Amino acid sequence: MAMAPIVRMEEITRIYQMGPTQVEALKGIDLSIDEGEYVAIMGPSGSGKSTLLSLVGCLDRPTSGRYFLAGQEVSTLSDDDLARIRNRRLGFVFQSFHLLPRMSALRNVEQPLIYARVPPAERKRRATEALERVNLSHRLHHAPNELSGGERQRVAIARALVNEPALLLADEPTGNLDTATGEEILRLFDQLHQRGTTILLITHDPDVAQKAQRVLRIRDGILVGSDDPEGGS
Amino acid sequence: MLWENVVLAWGALRANLLRTLLTLLGMVVGVAAVIAVVAIGRGGQAYIIGEISSLGSGMVWVEPNWSQVEDFEKPPSLKPEDLKAIAALPGVQEVSPLFLSSLEAASSEKSARVQVNGVGSGYDQVRNLTLQEGRFFNSGEVERQAPVVVLSQKVAQDLWPKEDPIGKTLWLQGKAYSVIGTLKGGSGLQASLGDASPKEVYIPYSSFQRQTGQQDIQAVFILPTSPSDVSSLLQDIQSILDARYGKNTFSVQSLDDILGAIRNVTNIMTLIVGAIAGIALLVGGIGIMNIMLVSVTERTREIGLRKAIGARRQDILWQFLTESVVVSSLGGIIGILLGAGVVSLVSRLTALPSLVTVGSVLLAFSFSALVGIIFGVYPAFRAAQLDPIEALRYE
Ligand SMILES: Nc1ncnc2c1ncn2[C@@H]1O[C@H](COP(=O)(O)OP(=O)(O)O)[C@@H](O)[C@H]1O
Ligand SMILES: [Mg+2]
Fold first, then answer.
1. Which residue of B has its CA nearest to A51?
2. How far is A110 from chain B (nearest CA, A)?
3. Residues in B touching A117 (Cβ below 8 Å)
4. φ, ψ dihedrals at A78, nearest 5°
5. What are the residues whose beta carbons fall under 8 Å from the beta carbon of B73, sequence distance 6 or more?
6. CATH 3.40.120.10 corresponds to the domain A7-227
7. Mind spelling out the 3-state secondary structure of A164-180?
8. What is the pTM of this model?
9. What is the ipTM of this complex?
């Protein structure tokens, strides 16, 4: 049970139909991520990184292949089941934060718990805890536009963590941040990893990728260059 | 979850308050119109019907058919035999002629010009007059041309401001009448007239005829035994009079005819205004659909994010449907307040009672909520159908 990987993808393809032409965004991906790993997938623009992340994140279904998330085959599940899996097992961090404006940091972090039907008092407690984990306990009641870029991304990370996901997915999480703030976010990822969170990070930036425990490279929809346990090139 | 959605909707609404309120104008006007017109229409109708009924429920009267009268100096008149024939009809309880004249009246201290009604003994019942004190005259007094008089409250107060008038003498143009009764003050319209309320006295018609020399009976009031069905009585009286004086020389009418006509008019008015309000609500609904489609487009990224963190299609659908209902209900509430404001203003400026009923408020509110549902479904459906990946990428 402990040995079962969180993510296991076999021969995954994703073909986009664009009118008469087909775009093969992913051409047979085999991917395995174990519990507690910190994996980066690096590749140039258009190589299929976001497509792969959408599939891992159950926002999309593969054209062919099999995908097991925490041992459960998900490529055949219904939309509602996938929504449930995203809610309970996955946490997303996006390049552009995607915080809801007009809502405090606390309310933003509570949102996933609303869909999990967590009662209000417990929701508040857990959201506060999640914000403490990202060192934002002093910003609970600030709206996004009252926060710096780094703080916004930390709110987004707290939101991703609040439901104790099996896997944290991050798509260019430092893309909208200056170098120093980006470093700060990556240090936070490192801390989370130290404490046992499984992370899959996607980036085009080698400096970011090298922070991970293992770096995979993708080019034209195929995973090339394999494990690099020490990080770096 | 519902509560969460209401909170979300309220937040979204507040963020675009001015825009939302402008869109709601159609709804507000529609709902306010329904409330105001129904209330004023109902109030007015109830008021008029009340006034008319207080004149004598189930009352039937005969008068010359004025549209056929050629010489207004000499309108056709009825004879005492005609009254006897009418009184003999089945379903007739009381018959009373009515003579009218304006005469000078005086007590020992004061005098005033009053309207003198020469009537039969059953006239108090026919016209629904209630006595304050004393009694109305009886048929014996009518037969003997007794000099007795019943005073309206106004006359009693004006001529005997400090004393009880019963038993005192009223001088009508120099002739002595003994006061045997006083009437209760009128209500509604009559009460609201205050000082202008009618100064009337009632004497036996036989006494009236003797004093004034006036013999022609121009108006007859009839009290049916059962006020509910007077149509056959109307026909019977009409055919007697038609046989004696020619077709439609006299007209026979009942209060029910008039009440029915008033009800018809106000009902038609209510219907027309209802239709106009319906159109306003329709326009308001389209406005809401428009604003909700804008809202969905503006919040595409929010929808994408919500799906990513676990919202199902139905969660998004309910979120936006709730928002649309909250928006339209807000329009309904503002409209109800506005309408009620107009109604209370109107009822303060006029004598009309205000009739904003709980029923019409609930109806207006549920209608506006319904508009929110109907016109919110499509935008909410559009939101629910969005593809999360594209929605997250939306700029
Ligand atoms: N919805 C789509 N429809 C058609 N083609 C798409 C779609 N999404 C991505 N693609 C194509 O698939 C390929 C991979 O895209 P993507 O996964 O976004 O790459 P990356 O994130 O590495 O830049 C690109 O050629 C892109 O044009
Ligand atoms: Mg990308």
1. B389
2. 11
3. 1
4. -75, 165
5. none
6. no
7. CCCEEEEECCCCCCCHH
8. 0.72
9. 0.93
